[in-house]
């Protein structure tokens, strides 16, 4: 890698909360002409994200993980971060360039927590481009609840996290030089259109074939389930309360919690007593979310769920850094 890569390379950062479509979007961008995603990454890295291939800045799990990391002020990194030293920037670039195809000059990196790190990344990689994907908060939140089961989180807390992270990004994007935004819903409707637009945005072209197909099946399933929560669930008072409470804030992003996904009809207005009990609904939901998931965990995960977050973070950090050191040692050792 050249000592000064500012003019030689372009860096494309795919941003968006977990379960927003960043993975498939990132893979397809890496298929554009002259682009490279990470290749031949360590087998010990279960999910190929840039954050897991470096040890310069903390990983999202250190701030609580999916659905929680954005609430920790330390997860929001800007050009004023103490981590932006020349040595750290050099190490970060080396960590990622080790897994990018050196024959290509447009380097693609995908990490959901990038949503709160755009200004930091722009400072470290001046010739950077940001592609931000946003997905319906119901789908993001329900998918997060389903996939990440060590520390369960209530739906209203996940709604709040979605809003908090996108609000921070809205403030940060004023400082970005190159930014392209899209929604998951638009992407699944017309992926070819967005592949062409993104290719033009980063200065390349889209191949005629070879892009990964994307479907809206999962999105519809989550929205249909939400409709049932609003109209049929025993706990519909809770779901209607949080729908009414968060509706105005999500409307600003073009989403609605009050429209049933199939009939598109508004749910009935809530009685005054439902609003009066709203706080109790949320407390009950927090307790039930933890207990229901805790009881389904195996004994080992139950113990982990009860451990203080600081201990879990310390253990994961040590394990992650040990794996990185092992991989680096293997890379520089002569082949047997």
Overall 3D geometry? globular
Summed over residues and divided by their number, the pLDDT gives a mean of 83
Structural class: alpha/beta
**Major beta-sheet overview:** 5 strands, parallel
CATH class: Alpha Beta
Tally of helical segments: 13
What is the assigned CATH homologous superfamily? P-loop containing nucleotide triphosphate hydrolases
Rg over CA atoms, rounded to whole Å, is 21 Å
CATH topology: Rossmann fold
Return residue spans where pLDDT drops below 50 for at least 5 consecutive residues. Answer: none
How many E strands? 5
Beta strand %:
5-15%
Give descriptors for this structure.
alpha/beta; 336 residues; globular; 5 strands; Rossmann fold; five-stranded parallel beta sheet
Question: What does this molecule look like?
Answer:
By secondary structure, the protein is α/β, with parallel strands linked by helices. It has a single domain, classed as Rossmann fold. Helices cover 47% and strands 7% of the residues. It has 13 helices and five strands. It has helices at residues 22-29, 86-97, 118-124, 137-147, 155-172, 184-189, 191-202, 217-231, 236-251, 272-276, 278-294, 299-306, 309-332; strands at residues 10-15, 35-36, 106-110, 128-134, 179-183. Strands 2-3-1-4-5 form a five-stranded parallel sheet, with helices on both faces. It is globular, with a radius of gyration of 21 Å. 36% of the residues are buried. The mean pLDDT is 83.
């Amino acid at each position: 890698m050249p000592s000064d890569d500012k003019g030689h390379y372009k860096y494309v950062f795919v941003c968006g909360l977990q379960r927003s479509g960043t993975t498939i979007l990132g893979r397809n961008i890496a298929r554009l002409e002259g682009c490279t995603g990470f290749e031949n990454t360590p087998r010990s890295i279960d999910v190929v994200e840039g954050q897991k291939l470096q040890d310069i800045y903390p990983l999202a799990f250190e701030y609580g993980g999916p659905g929680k990391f954005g609430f920790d002020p330390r997860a929001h990194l800007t050009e004023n971060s103490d981590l932006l030293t020349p040595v750290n920037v050099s190490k970060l670039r080396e960590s990622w360039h080790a897994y990018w195809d050196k024959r290509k000059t447009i380097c693609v990196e995908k990490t959901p927590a990038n949503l709160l790190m755009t200004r930091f990344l722009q400072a470290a990689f001046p010739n950077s481009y940001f592609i931000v994907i946003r997905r319906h908060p119901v789908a993001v939140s329900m998918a997060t609840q389903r996939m990440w089961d060590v520390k369960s989180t209530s739906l209203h807390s996940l709604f709040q996290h979605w809003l908090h992270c996108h609000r921070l990004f809205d403030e940060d994007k004023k400082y970005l030089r190159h930014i392209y935004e899209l929604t998951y819903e638009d992407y699944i409707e017309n992926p070819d259109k967005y592949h062409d637009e993104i290719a033009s945005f980063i200065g390349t072209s889209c191949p005629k074939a070879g892009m990964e197909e994307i479907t809206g099946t999962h999105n519809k399933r989550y929205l249909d389930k939400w409709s049932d929560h609003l109209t049929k669930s025993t706990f519909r008072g809770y779901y209607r309360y949080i729908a009414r409470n968060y509706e105005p804030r999500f409307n600003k992003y073009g989403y609605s919690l009050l429209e049933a996904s199939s009939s598109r009809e508004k749910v009935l207005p809530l009685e005054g007593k439902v609003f009066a009990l709203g706080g109790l609904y949320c407390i009950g939901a927090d307790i039930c979310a933890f207990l229901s998931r805790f009881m389904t965990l195996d004994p080992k995960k139950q113990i982990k769920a009860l451990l203080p977050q600081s201990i879990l973070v310390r253990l994961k950090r040590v394990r992650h850094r040990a794996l990185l050191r092992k991989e680096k040692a293997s890379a520089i050792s002569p082949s047997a």
